[in-house]
Amino acid sequence: MKKIYFYMMIVAVLITACNMDDNTEIESIEQEIGQIKMTTKQSFVSINIQGTGTAFINWGDNSQIDTIVLKDDYANLYLNTFYSHAYYDYPTEHTITITGMNIIRFVGDYQGISQLNVSKNPKLKNLYCQYNEISSLDLRSNDALETLAINHNNLEHLDISENTKLYYLDCSNNRLTELYLKDNNALRIIFCNSNQLTTVAFHRLFESLNNTNGSYLYIRNNPGFLDCERRIAEDKGWNVADNGIITMTVEHQEVSLSLAGSGPMRIDWGDNSEIETYTLRATDEGGLLSYHHEYADASPHTIIIYSAYITHFSNDNTGCTMLDISKLIDLRVLSCANNRLKELPLNDQVQLTTLLCNNNELSGLYLNIVSLTTLSCYENNLTELDLSHNTHLRSLDCSKNKLQEIDVSKNEALYSFNCFANQLTKLDVSSNSILVLLDCEYNKLTSEALNALFGTLRNINTQSDYGRIYICDNPGVDSCDKSIAEMKRWNVF
If phi over 0 gives left and psi between -120 and 50 gives alpha, with beta otherwise, what is residue 2? Predict the structure, then answer.
């Protein structure tokens, strides 16, 4: 009996020691780095925490402390597994404590949070606590903060003077009467709409802004919105308007958009539905993400997309009649095929490499874009196409238009060229020294014009390679001398 009692005492001591070790580890981390604390009355809580190493969640109801291994995956911030907990004493208030040495992202949207304390977590970079009941927030210790989305709360004051790395701020739909940003030189996009900012408050805000080029400030639904002097901010390089990065009008009942980039993005679908918030990811992190919406009918709706950084955008088959991407300066790939666009202004898209605008109603296309490598503009109403600036162009499909001539002499990198079903009477590819595919069927090329074209084809010297040229349904197809091309190792179809 004494032995049994002795062993029981040893087990009890060991358990107590283990618990003491766990608590000591948590307390040590709290002292070194700190913690995140949030108070809520909800019966069910779901939060997302990212970073590296281990973190602990004390749910504040004497339940077991959860130990989690953190992941750093910003591209999938809203897709990763959330950490959840249910309470059975609603509406009792609970304070949740999250402890970890390297917590860099926290998402607590829609969690009924009335109090939030992140002051002891200086490594925090991204904080999302949208649609809660937060009335005050101390961010003076969070000098690493880059993204802050605290919209739809009860804030009357917000001090971000110490957050000098902040580039994205959404404090819309609060009760702010003042917003001063003198020390926030990294800011590139600000949502402060739907607050209590007067004309005087706006002027003070505008004067505090840094000089920039192409940053965005959204101010609608404030008392001073109509009467403030926006030019104070605009003279510093800020875009002050309701316009977002992308504005488009669609006439389909169901719409699907695909985008890639980085950072937060908001979509206003233009039908008084709730504005949706997402996190973009880069194409090398899993490809484009698709965003779907269904309208009550197929009447015209104007969609506005807000984001600081979009590289890929597709709105194919949306019944789009208007597309404004003039502020999308980082765009690499644009696909707006199978719509009803009559014009497509492309002025500042200097990084664009791929443009797919086929099957529209375009009558003109101005492309002063050196970086462009792929252009698909078939099945439009183009009567002319200036490619003189597109010196890196490799693939061109301008078939089924109304072109009477086309000059590709500046496109020395052209590899594939399709000008099928136009009104061409002559064609010269003498400058296209790596061309391997040419489709000029259904044009107005006589035998003389075809023979002249054959003469401009490059010689293919590699014994195993052949070029391909398609010439069917041209006036001179039966009487031309195909051997001119065949002698240069081109197969004529």
Answer: alpha
Do residues 191 and 56 both lie within one domain?
A: yes
> Are 115 and 66 in the same domain?
yes
The Cβ of residue 180 has, within 10 Å, a number of other Cβ atoms equal to 16
Which structural domain range is residue 448 located in?
362-493
Task: State CA 193 to chain mean position distance.
Answer: 21
Residues 80, 178: one domain?
A: yes
Please say whether the beta carbons of 330 and 310 come within 8 A.
yes
Give the total number of structural domains in the chain.
4
215 and 335 assigned to the same domain? no
pLDDT band at residue 28 under the 50/70/90 scheme = very low
Model confidence at 344: pLDDT above 90? yes
Query: Could you say which DSSP state residue 76 is in?
Result: G
Region of residue 198 (left: phi > 0; alpha: psi -120 to 50; beta: else):
beta
Tokens, residue 258:
């695909």
Start-to-end C-alpha separation, the chain: 100
For residues 213-235, average pLDDT: 84
The predicted-structure confidence for 288-307, as pLDDT tens digits, reads as follows 789 999 999 989 999 988 87
pLDDT tens across 108-161, in order? 999 999 999 999 999 999 999 999 999 999 999 999 999 999 999 999 999 999
Do 191 and 53 have their domain in common? yes
CB contact set of 6 (below 8 Å; sequence gap of 6+): none
Q: pTM above the 0.70 mark?
A: no
HSE (CB half, 13 Å, CA atoms) of 349?
Answer: 25
Question: How many other C-beta atoms are found inside a 10 Å radius of the C-beta of residue 114?
Answer: 16
The neighbouring-strand residues paired with 170 are 149, 191
The reply to whether omega before 264 is within 30° of 0 (cis) is no
Mean pLDDT of the chain: 87
